[in-house]
Amino acid sequence: MKKELKFIANHFGPEKQREKAIEESGEYTQALKEYTYALKYEDDPQEIEYRRKHAIEEAADTWITTWHFLHQENAWIEFWGFVKAKIKRTIKRIKDGYYDSSL
Q: What burial class does residue 61 get, using C-beta atoms within 10 Å of its C-beta: 0-12 exposed, 13-18 middle, 19+ buried?
């Protein structure tokens, strides 16, 4: 799969792939909103499942374009550094009660 991802990234180039990443991120955001809404307010299990699958499909598109961005920017080490730091920070915040609501 890595070979195929590189082929696509190289074919379109960084500028087109950044534009595509912006588009796919927006579609993923919208699909998550629709799935969340369906979970809260929809009675039809088929509609909920449709929204769930659509959100997963848009997550795949977002993942692919994110992979392209990181590949084209040669940013994997930086990326994983941020991932590790953000996980560590979130765990600390959970333990410190940062996310606990006082309302």
A: middle
